Amino acid sequence: MITIRSLSGFNKRLEAAENKLIVLEFFATWSTPCKDINEAVKALARQNASKAEVIQINVDKFEDLVDTYKVRSKPTFVFIKNKRNIYRVLGADEEKLKHTLSELCK
Hints:
By secondary structure, this protein is of the alpha/beta class. The protein has a single domain (2-105), classed as Glutaredoxin, CATH 3.40.30. It is 42% helix and 27% strand. Strands 1-3-2-4-5 form a 5-stranded mixed sheet, sandwiched between helices. Helix 2 (32-47) links the parallel strand 2 and strand 3 (52-58). The longest helix has 16 residues, at 32-47. This is Thioredoxin-1-like. InterPro entries: Thioredoxin-like_sf, Thioredoxin_domain, Thioredoxin_H-type-like. It comes from Drosophila hydei (Fruit fly). Residues 1-106 form the Thioredoxin domain.
């Protein structure tokens, strides 16, 4: 799991992913739900590291990406495969996140 530091770094990560599942986690450092689910996201990222890459995006630093991916709530998880948005999970729903990641990593 990585936290992006620049837009170019984000684009490089997407390009390098090839067929790997990408999970974009849009978060805010001040958001209680984001803080609450953070450890679960880290654990899921470790468990699925060979099949998926989790990229954290701070909504306060990357407003262009927030607009591009139409993020309206925090956290929002956007799942991308082959450069296409294939699913999203809104809010700190750990069970839904686990289930979605498991299904999409098959």
